[in-house]
Amino acid sequence: MYSEWRSLHLVIQNDQGHTSVLHSYPESVGREVANAVVHPLGQALGTPSVAGSESLLKTDKEVKWTMEVICYGLTLPLDGETVKYCVDVYTDWIMALVLPKDSIPLPVIKEPNLYVQSILKHLQNLFVPRQEQGSSQIRLCLQVLRAIQKLARESSIMARETWEVLLLFLLQINDILLAPPTVQGGIAENLAEKLIGVLFEVWLLACTRCFPTPPYWKTAKEMVANWRHHPAVVEQWSKVTCALTSRLLRFTYGPSFPPFKVPDEDASLIPPEMDNECVAQTWFRFLHMLSNPVDLSNPAIISSTPKFQEQFLNVSGMPQELNQYPCLKHLPQIFFRAMRGISCLVDAFLGISRPRSDSAPPTPVNRLSMPQSTAVNTTPPHNRRHRAVTVNKATMKTSTVSTAHASKVQHQTSSTSPLSSPNQTSSEPRPLPAPRRPKVNSILNLFGSWLFDAAFVHCKLHNGINRDSSMTAITTQASMEFRRKGSQMSTDTMVSNPMFDASEFPDNYEAGRAEACGTLCRIFCSKKTGEEILPAYLSRFYMLLIQGLQINDYVCHPVLASVILNSPPLFCCDLKGIDVVVPYFISALETILPDRELSKFKSYVNPTELRRSSINILLSLLPLPHHFGTVRSEVVLEGKFSNDDSSSYDKPITFLSLKLRLVNILIGALQTETDPNNTQMILGAMLNIVQDSALLEAIGCQMEMVRSIPHNNLKSHSRTNSGISSASGGSTEPTTPDSERPAQALLRDYALNTDSAAGLLIRSIHLVTQRLNSQWRQDMSISLAALELLSGLAKVKVMVDSGDRKRAISSVCSYIVYQCSRPAPLHSRDLHSMIVAAFQCLCVWLTEHPDMLDEKDCLKEVLEIVELGISGSKSKSSEQEVKYKGDKEPNPASMRVKDAAEATLTCIMQLLGAFPSPSGPASPCSLVNETTLIKYSRLPTINKHSFRYFVLDNSVILAMLEQPLGNEQNDFFPSVTVLVRGMSGRLAWAQQLCLLPRGAKANQKLFVPEPRPVPKNDVGFKYTVKHRPFPEEVDKIPFVKADLSIPDLHEIVTEETLLFFFDVVGGGS
């Protein structure tokens, strides 16, 4: 970018502005002169009564002479007050560009830019490392840096020349302290963060006030490359680039794009007055100021700087021991921080960053965390977490870390660091890329070179891989083989630094490499529909996946975990040629999902999240065998990752042959999974694979029937002449035309390569029923999902032995018994919901398989469960006596449970007896209604008014048609058709009154009436019985006054009254 511009590095080296005329005199003379001249000035500033008075220096000549003395005083040892007074005087004078004071000499006030330029050059002497009293020097350096910050922030009259001198001054002092190898506890280690922070802040201010020319940018890039062995350099670079990116996205993509939120402290580094064009130019230049971040993974490059070369050779010219320079042992951690910073930028452009409430910039989920280590000879740990947020002091107290050498170390983490990440709750959803995100090619054009190089760090390349000529894939002239060689550098890279000992650096660059791999996976997973990606990027990405998914001798657990965590939607993005990595993903899943503990990954990642991502990938792989069938998958590196040349791992195989492996992974994952959400996904996948297999077999049977028909067009493609060729692993591939593949070639070898649908169904029933009554019965979400799975399996149209079906029904019954028998305090709405779901599952099984009720044991068990749900107890438990209904007190678990049990009983009593019905089990209710009866009636007299309706128990409606329908069964018999509508659905019944069997004919035999029976004269004894309206006990009850208040009729009616009444009645008639 700056190749045509010259660097200012030689200008800085040849500048003698930091020397004084006193350097020409003996040291004792300079010391005496400095002490004599500086003390009055410093004491005047330190005395409050004198500080506000006028300066002792009046003329330009006096000021310049005094500055020569102060320049020399800044080089003196720190054993006295001279250096402190020099710093006090200069930090006071440079404020002439901010707010002039009386203590500042008048010539400095008149020409502040000229004098400040000289002062800045003199202050370089303060930052030269000294052997004694490091704390005093650190304190004085911080005083100068704070004054520089205030000068750059508040000065409004600073000229361009002063800005340029200020930038060169900051570059020079940073290079003095940060370029040499770091000494533990030295001034450079203590001032690194402040030095680089002030440099970047002042540089951003200079971009706003007077944009630096290209030579200054080139010089800064060259010098920063010499400081990269300091963690603070990469950390501050990440802060600035994140803050600039936040501003860049705001005006580039508009307010609808997800904001990239950074802490206020970092956002304040960007001057508010910086315009959009300046932000864009500054952002791109700062992005490349660190040079190539991948160089951090190569100690030979970092240690090849001039300052390192000077330190590596002692006076005799012999190389020093490498362990004397422990800063190189921090390169893996620094490399990881650089990759984390780039990853943050990529996620910001994708729009998937997540805002946080703490003090660190937002970083997305699924990150490897590698906290900073203060130990010298200890490998930094890979503290893998789910979501990258800042680890503050409180978090670090409870966090646990591990190292590659299993040694415990303490970690120091800045509260504003964007490069560390604690745990994230597994319930948080994965953020999705923004709809207006840039294209994959655009992001890779910007960051792809760094990320791909970082992803292949310490992977040795071999050329000349021979390919099988029989493979029908894209032909290539040469391929590459990546073999893991730990962190050892190749001999070619060692030539540049013969003093570098690779054995001192163990295999610990995996964290940064894993971060790069995860970032690339997220980039490719963000592909839009119809978006084209350059083949060069796709090929490198597939090679990255193949290398990262290795599980043999070259396995790298951080990289493997990062690829899996960041690739769940990979197979749903329609990437060209993605099928080449399917076998490698399957092998990786075979390593992760059946492992219950995942002990090899616990130090890098949350095992639950790793399993969840693996399950999501498995879900996207399960349809491939059914979809592609006997199509062969392409192999990029055939047999080159295995020591055994005959291994089938890297051999071309058919997709259909992968089905058995996928099913076994699914079964193994279910047996080892403990997380409820992950378990539910596995159960859903299990139902899908069984249903798809059953459907595929059904289509295959239909196709075989079509082929058996004479003169069929498909007859020429019989199994004997289909051209089946053997492939590795016992798979087969027919060589039939493509037009035949969707239905025939895909299906005819199904039984040879994979389990049948019946086998999958039986395996699923056995595994689910076993765990339903053991591990899962306490968990509501898993129980509901398992019951739903069993209900779905009941509807699969596959011939299964009655014993397996009975096992499913018995397990559901046992589940209901256990849940109902739990103590009363444990009964809750959730518990009753599980019982209701179990009854519903039972209804589905009985509806889909009504023949199960023909088995006495099964019917008895189901009715006992129904009785338990309705009454709360069984009539007979174990060997106890039978308790009848009248002796039991109804005590159901809840009314919901009782209703569910009654619904099951209704299913048994009303629906199953009428099966199989013409409409099938999908419609348990009758399809006949009034309209249907009128439509198919042969008698024109029947209409809608012919029906009579009745209501029973306010719950059942009866529609009765008391007329024959005119069909052959009615004849002349009285007929009635009843439509019953109730809670169990609609039922239709037809009844007839037949005095003779339907098969008898009236003309076969004359009807001879039965003779009258002969009366029996012997009637026995005749008893005289007096009939009473009330029993005799009524007479024994004494009367009360109320009974006597109404007189009897014979007491008030006399004979004369009766005669008179009859006369009146008779005369009136």
Fold topology:
Blueprint lengths: L8 H6 L12 H20 L1 H4 L8 H14 L8 H12 L12 H5 L1 H11 L11 H21 L5 H19 L8 H23 L4 H11 L6 H22 L11 H4 L8 H12 L11 H4 L3 H7 L18 H20 L14 E3 L17 E3 L5 H6 L41 H16 L3 E4 L18 E4 L6 H4 L15 H16 L9 H14 L8 H9 L16 H11 L14 H15 L1 H6 L30 H14 L3 H33 L16 E2 L5 E2 L7 H5 L4 H4 L3 H16 L7 H15 L7 H19 L8 H20 L7 H16 L23 H17 L18 H7 L10 E6 L3 E6 L13 E8 L2 E8 L48 H4 L4 H4 L2 H14 L1
Antiparallel strand pairs: 1-2, 3-4, 5-6, 7-8, 8-9, 9-10
Rg over CA atoms: 46 Å
Strand numbers in spatial order across the main sheet: 7-8-9-10
- How much of the polypeptide forms β-strand, as a percent range? under 5%
Biggest sheet, open or closed, and with what strands and sense?
4 strands, antiparallel
Question: Total number of helical segments?
Answer: 40
Number of strands: 10
Unreliable runs: 355-426, 462-506, 639-649, 708-754
Structural class: mainly alpha
Provide key terms for this protein.
single chain; about 1050 residues; mainly alpha; two-stranded antiparallel sheet
